[in-house]
Inverse folding.
C-alpha cells in the first residue's frame, strides 16, 4: 500500500472504509472530508520533488552503487551457477520444502480440520507476526542459536536471519507484547486444541 493510502486509512481509523464514497473525517465545521479533497495532484507532487531532489542526488547515490566498500570488494565470489549452501550457517539455510522439489506442483487440496493458533484484535503489525528486532537469549530462537554455538553477543536480529527457517520458525509470534485472545498471558502463547489447555508456548 502506498504511504499516502496508509495515512488516509489512519485518519479514517479503520480499513473497511469505502474511500471513494465515504468521508475519511470531518473538518472544524463538521463538513465531510473525502480522500479526493486531500489527495495531492501530480503537479503538486512533482513540484515538491523538484525542490528536494536533483539529478546530482541520483548520480551520487547510484553512480557508485556497484563499487561498494572495501569489505564488499574483498568478498570471495562463487563461480558456480548454483548457490553453495553452507550447512553450518545460522544466517542462510536451504529451506526443507526445496529439497528434491518437483517441477510439477501437486494439485491443490482443501484444508480440513485446521484450527486457529491466534485470534488477534487491533493494532497488529508485521512485527507481531514475524519479529525483526533483537533475539532474546531465553526465546526459542535464542536457545536454538546457543545450541548451534552462537554467542549471545552475536545473535544479531531476526531481520538479519530471515534466510534461516530454523530461526524464523522459532521467532514466529515471538513478540512479548502480542495479545492472543486464545491465551490468558501476553506473548507467544496460545490454547492447545482440542485439549483446551491455555497458555501453551507457540
Amino acid at each position: 500500500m502506498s504511504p499516502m493510502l496508509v495515512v488516509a486509512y489512519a485518519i479514517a481509523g479503520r480499513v473497511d472504509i469505502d474511500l471513494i464514497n465515504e468521508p475519511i473525517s470531518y473538518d472544524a465545521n463538521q463538513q465531510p472530508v473525502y480522500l479526493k479533497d486531500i489527495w495531492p495532484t501530480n503537479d503538486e507532487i512533482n513540484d515538491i520533488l523538484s525542490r528536494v531532489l536533483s539529478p546530482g542526488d541520483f548520480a551520487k547515490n547510484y553512480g557508485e552503487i556497484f563499487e561498494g566498500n572495501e569489505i564488499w570488494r574483498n568478498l570471495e565470489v562463487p563461480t558456480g551457477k548454483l548457490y553453495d549452501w553452507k550447512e553450518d550457517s545460522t544466517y542462510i539455510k536451504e529451506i526443507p520444502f526445496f529439497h528434491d522439489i518437483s517441477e510439477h506442483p501437486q494439485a491443490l487440496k482443501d484444508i480440513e480440520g485446521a484450527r486457529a493458533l491466534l485470534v488477534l484484535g487491533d493494532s497488529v503489525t508485521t512485527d507481531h507476526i514475524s519479529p525483526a528486532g533483537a533475539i532474546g537469549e531465553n526465546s526459542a530462537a535464542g536457545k536454538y542459536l546457543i545450541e548451534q554455538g552462537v554467542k549471545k553477543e552475536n545473535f544479531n536480529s531476526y531481520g538479519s536471519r530471515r534466510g534461516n527457517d530454523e530461526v524464523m520458525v522459532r521467532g514466529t509470534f515471538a513478540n512479548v507484547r502480542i495479545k492472543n485472545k486464545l491465551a490468558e498471558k501476553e506473548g507467544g502463547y496460545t490454547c492447545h486444541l482440542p485439549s483446551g489447555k491455555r497458555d501453551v508456548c507457540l
User: Anything to note?
Assistant: The chain has a mean pLDDT of 89. Residues 42-52 form the longest helix (11 residues). The beta strands are 25-26, 32-33, 189-192, 197-201. The chain has two domains: 1-82, 126-201.
